[in-house]
Amino acid sequence: MTEASTYRIQGQTGEWEVVIGLEVHAQVTSNAKLFSGAPTAFGAEPNTQVSLVDAAMPGMLPVPNRECIRQAVRTGMAIEAQINKWSRFDRKNYFYADLPQGYQISQLYHPLVGEGKLEVDVDGQTKTIGVERIHVEQDAGKLMHDQHPTMSYVDLNRSGVALMEIVSRPDMRSPAEAGAYLTKLRSILRYVGSCDGNMDQGSMRADVNVSVRKPGDEFGTRTETKNVNSVRFVMAVVEQEALRQVEVLESGGTIVQETRLYDPDKNTTRSMRSKEDAHDYRYFPDPDLLPLELDDAFLEECRASLPELPDAKRARYEAQGVTPYNAGVLTAEVETARWFDALLEAGVDGKQASNWVASELFGALNRLGKDITESPVSPKQAAELLALVADGTLSGSLAKQVFEVMLETGDDPAKIVDDRGLKQTSDTGAIEAVIAEVLAKNPNQLEQYRGGKEALFGFFVGQTMKAMGGKANPGVVNDLLKKALAG
Questions:
Q1: What pLDDT, on a 0 to 100 scale, did the predictor assign at position 469?
Q2: Cα gap 352→389, rounded to integer Å
Q3: Contact call for residues 178 and 234 (beta carbons, < 8 A)
Q4: CA-to-CA distance for 194 and 279, rounded, in angstroms?
Q5: Looking at the structure, do residues 409 and 444 belong to the same domain, yes or no?
Q6: In which domain, by residue range, is 455 found?
Q7: Could you tell me the keywords of this UniProt record (predicted)?
Q8: Listing from the earlier edge strand, what are the strands of the sheet with 103-106?
Q9: Which end of the chain, N or C, is less surrounded by CB atoms within 10 Å?
Q10: Is the same domain home to 189 and 291?
Q11: pLDDT for 5
Q12: What is the C-alpha separation between 162 and 29, in angstroms, rounded?
């Protein structure tokens, strides 16, 4: 495993190393909840997406949702993890007001997915981060404390929603590595389609485990900061919690194994409760659910349904001449990659297309406050524009003008070129006449150029292009100017 970080905290007693593990809860994209047929739409009115199973009414029995299991298996395959053909659900027993069953159905001893790995790039280096397991479990409901002055209300819409808990190894050693891991994991989930990755909506959140040690020592006592809902906040938690632990240890204190919460307004973590161990939850096999047994046909169907994943797509782009940087940008979000793939399918050169998307298209979308899915220009239209540049119909500057009109009107580039007379001219006679006029108007510069001041060549090019309204073919202008100036 390549070490991608030498991140250290400088304390009064020397350097400290940070050890980080993430437990990511990802809501499974499915047609219903894990053990019921209730819907899972975000933003619905409280308690409108609750079945009798979710509300734990007497006599209600859970039935596993095949699609939830399928999506978790596909996710495991995407990170090259071991898929366990035999797995089992366990009851995790605890009381909380938004947990009507009095227990959570999860997997402790026999998870659906075993060990896997992710490769992340940090500061130009690649590091492999281990994934210990992915288990499937049901979410709890939500307490609402701001609806009444003296009481808390309970919303059970999330009760029973299917979650994948993706548990990493404690392989990360810096905030940057933790951020890169979470970013890469989110990207893979969205490519696979097993989770939408909308962290701001709570469909993906991370519990951040942090400890510190002197380099080379045994692992220290870790704390767990719960429900962190952005990559930036995860990195901030790592940094602030590590600094806090170093300060405690260097002042003679000890780190308590506990659960903490992050306050983004103050950029601090605070203690919530002591951290329970597995035996505190009295795990035992759920008596209402048979073990899950997966056959080869199901696994083959899961594998066959996987799309081209970010790393493979990135390698394919680079093989087509796309720079590593552009390939990384284009594969970071699945929607961007799909848009770019559609552009390539139209027959556009990969390098030319990637440069145009990274500069022109992204720049325009940023100005408009839109993302790639809202682009006013389709991949087909972009391909037509780039083809007009490639065949000499448009110069680079004319293409920029046409693109701006495309953004405003949605018209195809060929129509804009015809309607506005923006076609580039390669008519040598017309260009030679303009060059002669430019040279006649600038005798001093002509004399200087012929006297050895060759830097003035750009001046003559600019004057010619200006005189022709930017419509002259730059290559033809250069060739004809060289001849005229030499005479």
A1: 75
A2: 10
A3: yes
A4: 31
A5: no
A6: 428-486
A7: ATP-binding, Ligase, Nucleotide-binding, Protein biosynthesis
A8: 103-106, 90-93, 284-285
A9: C
A10: yes
A11: 64
A12: 8
Return the pLDDT at 14: 94
Give me the pLDDT at residue 405, please. Answer: 93
Q: Is residue 4 part of a domain?
A: no
Q: How far apart are CA 427 and CA 348, in angstroms?
A: 27
- pTM, two decimal places: 0.85
Look up the CATH number of the domain holding residue 458: 1.10.10.410
Tokens representing 40 are: 């899972």
Q: What pLDDT score does 427 carry?
A: 60
Q: Are 32 and 76 in contact (CB under 8 A)?
A: no
Number of domains forming the structure of the chain? 3
Low-confidence ranges of the chain (pLDDT < 70): 1-5, 275, 423-427, 487
Regarding whether 133 and 215 lie in a shared domain, the answer is yes
Place of tokens 């008519």: 427
